[in-house]
Write a structure and sequence with these properties.
alpha+beta; HSP40/DNAj peptide-binding domain; 3 domains; chaperone
């Protein structure tokens, strides 16, 4: 068995802490880690450790035995006479002696547990609410729609509350109190350990925590409380979306159970690629082929640009190619990219120059290039620079 944690460390108090300090530390930790308040993994185990520590340290005899012998005082390592010499023959652990484990709420926190009954015997516990499932739909839009933004109507199936039974799942109030938990939604189980008897509380397996079972199921939803239905939803797709973006629509998913909130609907966007541009976020890239003469002499060319005002989302713009431009040069057109999702500004367009080398030359073209070859000053290559 792994070493048990020190009880003082569990409560976060010193070994000379007063009873008042121990009780206050327990109160704070029990409120924080109670399974009905804290749903995180490990909270229930932490709550059990806190109660075990408080059970010992809040009792003067048990605390004295623990201070003297540690955990060995309770695990049977000492004989009955030795244990009795410290005034501790053994004990039953049941949430500090409360007849009902949920009375811890009333004793320490000043309000009744939602799982106890009122003095008149009526159930104060409400049916367990459960949130509905989130749904995911994927839609494909053209590149122009991503440039301009668009309105879109989707059709999808979701679970909606049954109108016949108003989501209860029962016909004509056909529900009765759960016989296993007597309407509390929780069941108590007592286990014997080296510390004595430890009571644990868990969700009732019969009613799943609702405190009620259906006697007469609704014929329309067959006791489910929800029915599948076709739904249509008009949505607005903002300009600047790209593949992978998700739009969230709250409470448009499956209806919850027992009055729980509906889940959310997520629309995942897939944008058809452009035949002209390559996209990286709000920026777009365009390869522009030019000839040797255009690279040497310069030129003015018309290139495609992003333009939400045009029907296809693409317009045209004249740009100047400077004389002597390098073969792999990049020209930046600021603010000519995609609209940004923030709604402020646009990305940029980057034009990558691609120098075209002619594959076949006419006799006249060949003669011109021969003349250029003779007149051009040849740049030094690596060998020229090495041997010069």
């Amino acid at each position: 068995m792994p070493d048990k944690k020190d009880y003082y460390d569990i409560l976060g108090v010193s070994r000379d802490a007063s009873n008042k300090e121990i009780k206050q530390a327990y109160r704070n930790l029990a409120r924080k880690y109670h399974p009905d308040v804290n749903q995180e993994d490990g909270a229930e185990q932490k709550f059990k450790e806190i109660n075990e520590a408080y059970e010992v340290l809040s009792d003067s005899q048990k605390r004295a035995a623990y201070d003297r012998l540690g955990h060995a005082a309770f695990n049977g390592s000492f004989s009955g006479a030795e244990s009795a010499s410290y005034g501790f023959p053994g004990f039953d652990y049941n949430f500090s002696g409360f007849s009902n484990p949920f009375d811890i709420f009333e004793e320490f926190f000043g309000f009744r547990s939602p799982f106890t009954q009122t003095r008149t015997g009526s159930k104060s516990r409400q049916r367990a609410k459960k949130a509905g499932r989130d749904l995911l739909q994927t839609i494909k839009i053209p590149f122009a729609a991503a440039v301009k933004g668009t309105d879109y109507e989707i059709a999808y199936r979701r679970l909606k509350p049954c109108l016949a039974c108003k989501g209860s799942g029962a016909a004509n109030n056909g529900k009765i109190s759960c016989p296993q938990c007597q309407g509390s939604g929780r069941v108590q189980k007592v286990n014997r350990t080296f510390l004595g008897q430890i009571a644990t509380i868990s969700t009732c397996p019969t009613c799943h925590g609702s405190g009620e079972i259906i006697k007469n199921p609704c014929p329309k939803c067959r006791g489910k409380g929800r029915i599948a239905a076709q739904e249509k939803l008009k949505i607005k797709i903002p300009a600047g979306v790209e593949t992978g973006h998700k739009l969230r629509f709250r409470q448009k998913g499956d209806a919850g159970e027992n009055g729980g909130l509906a889940g959310d609907l997520y629309i995942q966007i897939k944008v058809e690629p452009s035949k002209i541009f390559q996209r990286r976020g709000p920026d777009v890239y365009l390869d522009l082929p030019i000839t040797f003469s255009q690279a040497a002499l310069g030129d003015t060319l018309e290139v495609p640009v992003i333009d939400p005002g045009q029907p296809g989302g693409i317009g045209r713009k004249k740009i100047k190619i400077p004389a002597g431009i390098d073969a792999e040069a990049v020209i930046k057109l600021s603010g000519q990219g995609m609209p940004k999702l923030s709604g402020t500004g646009k990305g940029d367009e980057y034009i990558r120059i691609k120098l075209q080398t002619p594959k076949k030359l006419s006799p006249a073209e060949k003669e011109i290039f021969e003349k250029l070859k003779k007149t051009n000053s040849r740049p030094k290559n690596l060998w020229d620079r090495f041997f010069s």
